[in-house]
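Side project, low priority. Logging it here so it doesn't get lost.
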Amino acid sequence: MATRKRSRSTLVLLVRHGETPTTGKVLPGRAPGLHLSDRGRSQAERVAQRLAGMPVDAVLTSPLERTRETAEPTEARTGRAAVVDPGLLECDFGDWTGAELPRLSRLKAWSTVQRAPSTFRFPGGESFPEMQARMVGAVDRARAEHEGGVVVCFSHADPIKAALAHALGTHLDLFQRIVVSPCSVSAISYPPGQAPVVLTVNSTDEPLTGLRPS
């Protein structure tokens, strides 16, 4: 059995949390107490439905409420209790936490965030390279612990985009070109001894069973 599993690709599904009352309005970051909206809860149920028939080996989630709530329907459907992994946390936006996005977009530094994020550190918070290294490390641990299986990771937009950029071999300064919508699923396959393969990005509709690694 162990030999068979090592010969199979490991599939990692990266799921952004569902919508909240502040989605698209503020930069919530790691502030506690933000929960899914009614629409967000419906989106979370849809993710679980799309996983029907998928042999999920593990469910991991960021510690924040909005990701843990998004993971709950998948826990119920798969019978896999979600394990909290701090590596999947949202970027630490420091002094920008809770700021309104329209106001931030008027700052000179916002252009750096969008065009040269590898050079930027949020005031009092994390840099984008630190965020990417943390997120990639979490994915690497997950796929090593569940080699040959399927792992579902519930996280946040920027960390997921950074992990996808890494898997694609794309410079971090270009990661803002990737779109990761609420409750979208992005999939990376890790064949043994080979480079990762990005199977889908920002998927929101079709069943996911066709993504199972061969």
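Brief comment: The mean pLDDT is 95.
Revisit when time allows.
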